[in-house]
Amino acid sequence: MHHRLPLPAPDGSDPGEVSHLDVLLDLPPDFGSDSLCLLYLHGFGSDQRGEKATFFRERALAEGIGFCSFDFQGHGASGGTMAGLTLSRNLADVARVHGFLAEQGVRRVALLGSSMGGGTALWYAARHPAAVVAGLHIAPALELEQGLLAWAGEERARAWEEIGTIRYTSDLVACDLGWELIRDLRTYPMADLLARHRTPCLLLQGKLDTSVPWRGVADFATRCADCAIELHLFGDGDHRLTDRKERLWALMLEFLRGRGLVSRKPARSGSGASAARPRRKSPG
């Protein structure tokens, strides 16, 4: 089902300006109060209708798991701009959708994050430990500030800070980024995340990832000793890992079953089980 969630105008903007989040929510017919729902958080420059999100939605529904996704502000069909992107804004977006899920009767939520979405999910779980039962994260961007400053270089970074914006281009997106993104990221130190994160999670990382250094993800898994973290490294895997979606889903499902969050479906008689189709309406 397609939803548009209104958001309050940011401080200092036109009081008549109303932004929104574009949300897709699918719940299986037998979804109950104890059922699990995955909340998918996409990556930087991507959106909720990407290849991985679509694939995981289909697999989740076939297992009787609910699936919700949304576009962060500045992405996809949601309002806002990339120039206003910050981790704080992302966390507020997650909180808004999480609240919406509660209104729909969804009580058990696991976060499924990719890249920027994975980093956001880890911080959200750290700040709301009782509200998230598990995390499943593909190449979580834990060093976004360092990566952006390295991309810009010392001279352009100084100009970025002085001017307030910089033009960012990649194979996925071309946009203006505000310096407030860097300033905001500096208010989220790694030491704080390591100290506060308690949610069981599975980290899925490629060693050939040129966007998210695998050693940083492995270091987080090693140092975050107060929660159950499993790390799976793909020796020949890139950043997106779209070429091994089946394997990713198998590992995620195994993790959820191992935590008692998803029960194994009984085998059907006859020719075998067929994947459930998402009950999704076209936007608009």
Characterise this structure.
The chain has a domain at 20-143 and 190-258: Alpha/Beta hydrolase fold, catalytic domain (Rossmann fold). It is built from 8 helices and 10 strands. With 284 residues, it is α/β, with parallel strands linked by helices. The chain starts with a strand and ends in a 26-residue tail after the last helix. Helices cover 35% and strands 21% of the residues. The strands form 2 sheets. An 8-stranded mixed β-sheet has the order 1-2-4-3-5-6-9-10, sandwiched between helices. Strands 7-8 form a two-stranded antiparallel ribbon. The model is unreliable at 269-284 (pLDDT under 50).
List the helices and strands and how they pair.
Layout lengths: L1 E6 L11 E8 L9 E6 L9 H12 L3 E5 L16 H17 L4 E7 L1 H12 L6 E5 L5 H20 L1 E5 L4 E5 L1 H6 L4 H7 L4 E6 L7 H10 L5 E6 L10 H14 L26
Parallel strand pairs: 3-4, 3-5, 5-6, 6-9, 9-10
Antiparallel strand pairs: 1-2, 2-4, 7-8
Helix pairs in contact: 2-3
Structure keywords:
284 residues, Rossmann fold, eight-stranded mixed β-sheet, 10 strands, 21% strand, disordered C terminus
The total of beta strands comes to 10
CATH class of the domain at 20-143 and 190-258: Alpha Beta
- The percent range for strand residues is 15-25%
| Distance between the ends | 11 Å
* Biggest pleated sheet: 8 strands, mixed
Low-confidence stretches: 269-284
Shape assignment? globular
Radius of gyration: 19 Å
Secondary structure tally, helices: 8
Superfamily (CATH H level) name of the domain at 20-143 and 190-258: Alpha/Beta hydrolase fold, catalytic domain
Structural class comes to alpha/beta
Order of adjacent strands in the largest pleated sheet? 1-2-4-3-5-6-9-10
Roughly what percent helix? 25-40%
Element pattern in H and E: EEEHEHEHEHEEHHEHEH
Can you give the mean pLDDT? 91
According to CATH, the fold-level topology of the domain at 20-143 and 190-258 is Rossmann fold
CATH architecture of the domain at 20-143 and 190-258: 3-Layer(aba) Sandwich
